[in-house]
Amino acid sequence: MALKKTWKVTYTYLLFENYKDYQTINSNLRDFQYDFWVSDNLTKEQIDSNGDYFKNKDLGFDKENVVAIYTYGNFADVLPQKRDYIYDELKKHPEIINAGGTSTLIGNISSVEFLLPDGKEYDSNNRGFMRFFRSDQGLIPTLGIELLEGRNFDSVIDSSGAFVVNEKVVEMLELEDPIGTNATNMAMRTQGKIVGVMKDFNFASLHNPIEPLVLTYRPQMSNIIVVKLAGGEIQKSLNYIENFVQEIAPGSLFTYDFLDDRLNNLYVSEDKMGTIFKIFSAMAIFISCLGLYGLAAYSAELRTKEIGIRKAFGASIPEILYLLSKAYFILIFIAFLIAIPISNYFVTEWLNNFAYQVEVNWRIFIVSGLAVAAIAFIAVFGQSYYAAKSNPSNSLRVE
Question: Quick check: helix, strand or coil at residue 49?
Fold first, then answer.
């Protein structure tokens, strides 16, 4: 046994003839490794935090349990003729709260046009832009969009055309009293009155700020049906809708999306980035733990005689553990101090790509630092405890 240990120490010294140089190089390598480990972990946590913020932020409308039903084939032909009947029949189901139609599903790319109020001059070179959705009278109540002024569309009164605009449009057009203002869609050359003003809501990705939005009353172009479900028995509700579609338009393709899923798809790249950082973080933890375990074993073996002498003079196991472990935690603390500004810089630069973002949470830095320290302690503890528990007489006899 003594020969085996002596051979191990001799072999190690043959690899590193100058132990002090080895200690310096190894310390620098470990510090760099811990910097990467801590920085990667901090960045991952911040990306996850921002991703959760995107998916849970109040967008200004009701996105939960909303199903978008696409109309194809016979169903697309039947919808314009029986729109009100279809909505009424759908709402007879106890799990269906409301239904409406739109040309563009929230979260999708919408057309860029311009609404010109009567009495204002049209400047084609400096007119800004607005997003346009075609919809019917059911969209606003189905999505719970808040009206600040005026009213919702009316299928009888607004049959010749009407507009509901958001606050950004009112601000852009400098309208003091928008309700009742006659206006023209300069792209489609359609006219109507502004009958309502919506509270601004996020109808697109949170990468961008809220843009001017105009809902124009065009039921004949609103070929996507949005249905608000109670949420109790979603699958039964979907089966009821599918059976109803097949009943009024046999052979039609029944396809649907949940609105919240569509909105979450806007942040797929962020989810992928978070996954990549999780993988790198796991790899960094694994590699660092292997390194820590090996270094702890090597350090304990080199200090066998010192440990034996200290124990012979009455050193306790906690004191020996502290002796063997303190250098690693000093390095981790230094790495943590270095990693904080590095991670904070890259996270801040990344967050600047978004109009809406979560603030950098310093609690994440603290929790991540404690997590890294705990993982390092687990990696080091086994070998350090084994060395601290060994019989000092055996250690001194070997030396």
Answer: helix
pLDDT tens across 74-102, in order? 999 999 999 999 999 999 999 999 999 99
pLDDT at 311 > cutoff 80: no
Distance in angstroms (rounded) separating the CA atoms of residues 148 and 168: 13
**pTM to 2 decimals?**
0.74
CA atoms in the 13 A half-sphere facing the CB of 380 = 23
Does residue 173 share a domain with residue 93? yes
The tens digit of pLDDT for each residue in 12-39 reads: 343 334 444 444 445 554 555 665 666 7
Angle, nearest 10°, between helix axes 317-351 and 19-56? 50
- The beta strand positions in the chain, using DSSP E, are 66-70, 96-102, 111-113, 115-117, 130-135, 147-150, 162-166, 182-185, 190-198, 213-217, 224-229, 255-258
Question: CA-to-CA distance for 83 and 225, rounded, in angstroms?
Answer: 10
- Same domain? For 125 and 30 the reply is no
Instruction: Read off the pLDDT of each residue in 262-266 and give the average, rounded to a whole number.
Output: 91
On whether both 39 and 83 belong to a single domain, the answer is: no
Q: Which letter, b or e, does each residue of 338-351 get, where b requires 16 or more Cβ atoms within 10 Å of its Cβ?
A: bbbeebbeebeebb
Which residues lie below 8 Å from residue 378, measured CB to CB, with a gap of 6+?
A: 289
pLDDT at residue 382 in the model: 66
224 shares its domain with 76: yes
Last residue of a domain, one of 266, 298, 325: 266
258 and 142 in a single domain? The answer is: yes
**Which structural domain, as residue segments, surrounds residue 249?**
66-266
Pick from 199, 203, 204: which is nearest to 145 by CA?
199
